Amino acid sequence: MSDSPAPPADRPKRPGRPAPPAPPEGPGRPGRPQKAAKPQTKYRRLVRCGSCCKQFDAGELAPGERFHCLCGALLEVPASAPQEAPVVRCAACGAPRAAGAVNCTFCAAPFALGEGARNTICPVCASRIGDRQRFCHACGSEIAPEGVVGERTEFSCPSCRPARPLSSRRIPDAATALAMLECGSCAGIWLGHTTFESLQQRARREVVAESLARPQAPVSAVPPGAARTAAPVAYRPCPVCQKLMIRRNFAGASGIVIDVCGTDGLWFDAAELDGVLAWIRAGGLGRSEARLAEERREAERRAARAKKELQDLEVEQSPERHWLDMLGSLVDFVLGAGRLR
Ligand SMILES: [Zn+2]
Ligand SMILES: [Zn+2]
Ligand SMILES: [Zn+2]
Ligand SMILES: [Zn+2]
Ligand SMILES: [Zn+2]
Predict the structure, then answer these.
(1) pLDDT exceeds cutoff 90 at 308
(2) How far is the CA of 93 from the centre of ligand 2 (A)?
(3) Is residue 102, in this structure, part of any structural domain at all?
(4) What is the ipTM of this complex?
(5) 269 is in which domain, residue-wise?
(6) How many angstroms does the Cα of residue 109 sit away from the middle of ligand 2?
(7) Ligand found nearest the CA of 91
(8) Assigned domain for 182 exists
(9) What would the pLDDT profile of 113-147 be if each residue is shown by its tens digit?
(10) Whose CA, among 95, 110, 137, 174, lies 20 to 30 Å from 253?
């Protein structure tokens, strides 16, 4: 396997199928050893999120390593080996292949494995497919990764000891490479303030649909084992500036305590991002804002009531005080008169 310079062992065995195109430095130059022994094919391993169906290129991560979907779900890189699969779907449009058909009835594309490298793994059926295929030729799934996960950075995980490098994520709507850093070991995630803001906004847009579907969604989506309540309170260093982060109950009411660097961003332990986003989707942020607004209104009402009571008291008191004054004068008068006698 790793020390074999021969063509890939997974050469197709089915008769009648064209052989895949030879690699550039392959049989054409028989005397030349393979370039600096890259031991294994590096696959573009696509992983699909079970909750929102987004796909990610997790080829940089090892099997078993975990990362977050943009919806907050925690995904794991599967260990399954890529499968060779016959062409039963159109790689250009996903349409099924009629028996013996050479070209797709819908888009006229040929039913053959495309040109170029075939180092992509279908996120649904784990078939080995062409890097430029738009659909899997085995299961017909659309191939549309959202971004690449797992590029190692020089930043360290604030949670793991010994320190472990965080990997960065390229996501389309993030301004910088620092927008999202992840630890493949503890599955913690670091988000820049802007990235978290856009994820929050996305979750808020989903509020209506989800809260209609399940009006009383549980507020804390953090599984009991995943909460860091058991561990003693520890302040962790910001992976970017190394200053200790502050711990904050997200939105003051979610019950999910996250680590925040005011300058750089926020750190979420494995299930916390999912918990925070689920809480927002369940209308938590709206409720928390409504609660604050209601508290403000109640304070105003109390202040107004107190002011009114004070005024009423003054109004009530004035004749009373007047009467008491008169009584005092009368007593003074009587006593004075008595003394005069
Ligand atoms: Zn997802
Ligand atoms: Zn087609
Ligand atoms: Zn497939
Ligand atoms: Zn970690
Ligand atoms: Zn910082």
Answers:
(1) no
(2) 4
(3) no
(4) 0.82
(5) 149-282
(6) 5
(7) 2
(8) yes
(9) 767 889 999 999 999 999 999 999 999 999 988 87
(10) 174
